[in-house]
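#struct-help
A.M.: can someone run this one for me? Single chain, 313 residues.
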Amino acid sequence: MGGQSEQVSVPAPMDGNRFDVALAALAAVSRNKARRLIESERAGRFSGANEIPARPNARVNEGETLWFRREVVAPVRPLRMALDVRYEDPHLAVVSKPSGMVVHPGPGNHDGTLVSALLYRWPEVEGVGEYPRWGIVHRLDKDTSGAMVVARRSVAYRGLTDALASRNVHRTYLALVHGRFEVTTGTIDAPIDRRRARRFVGPGGKPAVTHYRREASWSRPPISLLQVTLETGRTHQVRVHMESIRRHLVGDPVYGRRARAGVDPGRVWLHAQRLRFTHPVTNATVDITAPLPSDLRSSLSNLGAPSLGTLPP
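D.P.: on it. Structure tokens below:
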């Protein structure tokens, strides 16, 4: 990974364009790629000698200097790896990603990603979507386990990305958090902003909506198991939204805190339990559940019987 920095000047016809739109045209990349460059701080703006805050939707001015750093990525190698396939057909598949697996190549993580496993299992995935994220239509954090839908064909990729954009892919998580919930259900509607790698709730961020329901809770220590449903899919959304109401996820080294031995699984206690969507080719309903992995199940067992609610089967 890496790449040298390049610079371009905003021409008069692009005065007033969005930053991501102008960058896509001037750098000859897709708009999604331009947005990712901006959000990962591999692209920015200067007016004279002064750097300007860079957001994808900011308006650029004639004569500004835009800089960007292209990714230099070696070809992604197919690798034979264990892959828990919960559903597959000729167009798409649903897999249960284990904790510790990176979804796609990036800085410091080139081999051993989910994409390598997909390419080995289904070679036709190469060329579906954007390089080097072949087949990937949404992501889970490295430490988060659970259900992900992947595209085997371009027609499925287009349909799934459209469904995600229109909020027609329903994603349900299980999350173990510090603290108790006196009210059993709630919604967090708060925009998520970013400062380098860390996200936070802030008025300048992107809209984000999280619904939660208490499944079980314990008094000693005060911990609750939540079922969480996302309307939007912002990076670290569940973790950031729970931090914003002081219900930090167990085991989260960035936004949460550790729990006692036996309860803390040594990673973020977050599992993508269920995916439900309309198949983009057949129009059938696809509704898949990923079983809770052994480390999280052991964590619940070590808590003992909940004082309120019940545990998932």
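A.M.: thanks! The radius of gyration is 21 Å.
D.P.: also worth noting: The longest helix spans residues 154-165.
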